Amino acid sequence: MSTQARRERERAEREQAIIATARDLALAEGWDAVTTRRLAGEIEYSQPVLYSHFKGKDAIMAAVAVEGFAELAVALASARMSAADPRQAVADVAAAYTDFAEQRPAIYDAMFTLIVDLPFASQDVPTDLARGFAELAETVRPFAGDGDLETFTETFWSGLHGLVTLMRSGRLRRTDHDRRLAVLVDRFSR
Amino acid sequence: MSTQARRERERAEREQAIIATARDLALAEGWDAVTTRRLAGEIEYSQPVLYSHFKGKDAIMAAVAVEGFAELAVALASARMSAADPRQAVADVAAAYTDFAEQRPAIYDAMFTLIVDLPFASQDVPTDLARGFAELAETVRPFAGDGDLETFTETFWSGLHGLVTLMRSGRLRRTDHDRRLAVLVDRFSR
DNA sequence: TCCATTTCCTAGCGATGCTAGATATGAGAG
DNA sequence: CTCTCATATCTAGCATCGCTAGGAAATGGA
């Protein structure tokens, strides 16, 4: 039975290689550069191998997105923990969020704009996505007032997401980002 | 010279037909359904004719987006004018914004997410885009405090844009939209 | 050593955006 | 009225995309 175990291990490694390669390629040159042919070439297998691991290109992007949710949750948690006071926590978490999106634009796109049908069947996504959301919720909790915390958090999140996406599409000047972020933080921490 | 005038007029009409057809097709079936072959078939010309009017498919989408900016500006202005008081104006304009995006998702996408290089060379875009932005600015002016109105407006705009895009990608439940909108309005009208 | 099963690749399909080269159209000169 | 030439338009095709069927190759067991 050791050979079967080895095969399964190698297969898992190859699957991880596909995700990592797709991720690196997307970060370096954008998702348009991530073609199935090129991806297959990078991992030194033929195209159909990709489809024995994933249903299609969207599924590969979704797998990259899943990793992104975990990363984002960690980044937000770190920012929240190390903040001196609740108000500073909002500012730090907001900055961590937009920094994540700025530094990994392709991954952020896969997480929130490109992939419509996320694998909600999978266990990982709701978990890590919920973890990130929970970090946001805990951060703004002191300022939610008597209203619904979830709604309050979702609205704050929308503000961050809007800043990120409008800036990337060139509708907002990058130079004023910090000031806009300060306004958003101010509005949601009073 | 009348024949030449007629030709130019017919050519302008055909260009408008291309834009209108692309717009209708995108609204009805999404931008993926707007292929150059199908678009050419709808206007009863061959594909290359499209390229004698526009540089490519992106340019056609940009033309649709330009019309969208004008529409949005009108909708926002109407909402702002008919509001009873400044605070209600913020609520009404915000609702008008998200309604526009909800009812014309394809056009909204062309305006703010799909097209990266908008024809800023053209005169129309900055004008109509600026008109819409100016409507937002006038709406929130009473609540901007002593800070920069432009930055304040941009941040408010980001909130609206984030609500719209996160809801469309399925990250936010549609049922709670009104409550999120109320939170956003509350944060930016106090 | 031979067979059966699994794994993988070659080759190809349909569709996309876009374009070069051939063809039709029509205005103006003789 | 006819011919010419420029303009307008189409037919056909290219390169590329995501994806897949069918056959070849490798692998494990008898």
From TrEMBL, chains A, B:
Domain of life: Bacteria
Segments traversing the membrane: none
Keywords, in A-Z order: DNA-binding, Transcription, Transcription regulation
A Pfam family assignment: TetR_C_33
InterPro entries, sorted: Homeodomain-like_sf, HTH-type_TetR-like_transc_reg, HTH_TetR, MT1864/Rv1816-like_C, Tet_transcr_reg_TetR-rel_C_sf
GO molecular function: DNA-binding transcription factor activity; transcription cis-regulatory region binding
HTH tetR-type domain boundaries: 12-72
Keyword Membrane: no
Regions recorded as binding DNA: 35-54
Record protein name field: TetR family transcriptional regulator
